Input
Amino acid sequence: MMKLIWYNSEIQAYGYGESEDYLRASNNARDPQAVSVLMKFDHYSQHLTQKILKQLNIRHIEIDETPIPTQTPSQK
Output
């Protein structure tokens, strides 16, 4: 049974499941191309998938919390 991990950039969330779950997520998106498959697993391992999703979400939070450097007029 094939399992997938995908990212939906419209809602900034990761998802996982079978091909049908991915297709549902893609079809429910305003822009189906906003839902991208990141990984495919031939042999499903829930522990491995949860570990990967946890790391992706931690990194996503870290990126969101990183201040965006701004340039003041005197720096131009």
Summary: Confidence is low (pLDDT under 50) at residues 68-76.
